[in-house]
Amino acid sequence: MTAFWQDPITFLRLWLEGLLLSWGVPASWVLVIRFAVGALLLATAALLLVILQLWLERKLIGRIQDRLGPNRVGPWGLLQPIADVLKIFTKEHITPAGADRVPFNLAPVLSVAAALMVWAVIPFSATVMGADLNVGILYLLAVGALGELAIILAGWGSNNKYALLGALRTVAQLISYSVPMTLSALVPVMFSGSLHLNVITQAQEVWFVVLAPVPALIFLTASVAEVGRAPFDLPEAESELVAGYSVEYSGLKFGFFYVAEFLKAFTVSLIFAVLFLGGWRGPGAEAYPVLGFVYLMLKSGAVYLLMILFRGTLPRFRIDQVMDLNWKVFTPLALILLMVIALADYFLRGTFPFVRVLGLLGINGLAYVVLDRLLSSRERLRRRPVAQPVRPVARPENLITSSDAGGQA
Amino acid sequence: MSALQWVFIIASLITVGAAVMMVASHRMMHAALWLAVALLGVAVIFVTLEASFFAVVQLLVYIGAILILIVFAIMLTQRSTEAGSRLNSLAWGAAGVAGVIWTALTYVFIRWVVSGTPMQELGASFDDVVLLGKALVDAEGFAVPFEVASVLLLAALIGAVYIAFERKGEGS
Q: Among A148, A173, A202, B109, which has the highest number of CB atoms less than 10 A from its own CB?
């Protein structure tokens, strides 16, 4: 039996099972109780993590924007999110007139549930995994569909045209971006030969982000779009859609959507860490599974910080740019890379690991360079000025701004 | 009874109940939502049979693609928000056809040899995904139907693009 400090979760699980069996509970019910307790603990932990995330995100975005961020409640403003949560509990629930009540009330719950369901199959360490599912990756993609359904329900149930428009636009974005996301998630599947997330983690002697950097980049960008964060935050573009699908929600129901958004952001970081950054792998993680948990959290925390940086620094895309990027760049690129990497890996697998890594890196680099050339030539074609109207300028003879069209050259 | 049997009973009751509610609901949107519940119930039943691949595909294809398509179609129809009558003129005919099909399927399943054999526990090494994947590309297996289905989907895609294509010159 493993010691407590090596693998606390497994230790507690075995202790609970032993206790229940000694009480005379049938084995099948022990399994049910074990899964129920595990799900409850995991969901609570995930939702508590959001409180920390809220603080971190506000603080970091504050620094990026040359502000202090929350700094009044508690040390460094650490208690600010707790105060916010308490405030949102006391707010009034408003149901708009003509709302379809069941979808309207179901949507926030389903939204959080869809984000939490992903956590069931994540391998948190070498031994701890909610559900030992042999089709883990497919499950991740399938659960995303429930999130889409929640958004449609919210938009439809609100009886508000902005909400409906926002929901349609969001679902269009989510469905579109799940195509390159799925295609690039197939690359780790191909490398490891399994859909099981723990097998994929174990197969990463070399992190897959090294073997396939371009699919990893596509996956990261597509998952940022999939959770609707900046620069893909069109679902709640305040300036065009008021607040998108969540416009009619108030109080805790809005809080649910808010929590779901943050939870999804961390969840996709977690998925990225599992698929491309080696998951729980690290020095000593096999012998001391609790270390693996620390590694996984550090890796996904790093990805999450990257996403906060995206949010703090990049302006929002227009809807046509979002679709353009997806269908004309990411999807063809992911398809081509999938086939090229499959062929290359088939031939390189027999050689030395070093040669394989270098070969795959070279192919990815080549793909990136070709893509960059194509894109920049297309941009040049598009941006070529054809004609400019002559603008009246106060002093056309100005030497600094001398141009035929007038004004700034 | 074991816990698994309870899970099966609850899931199948929810599935059948949701299916009935889907047929009986006044609004089209509610019918679509009840369909979602029924499909989820079927996914749970797949899970109890240890067919996790089919459970996930059920979720991915039926809820992720088909149901969302149905919801979009309902949003585009004219009277989607009104509470209509429960029965339209074809309801009894449809019920009759469905009843006949149900009876025939039940008869076939009862007569089927497999239905009599007791279920066996699958070993931990059994990997249905690998078997399925091999069957789909094996010439002895389902390679030809698989390719034909792909061609069908491709034709549908091209058709959709053709319909949606903006013809230049024909100003609208």
A: A148
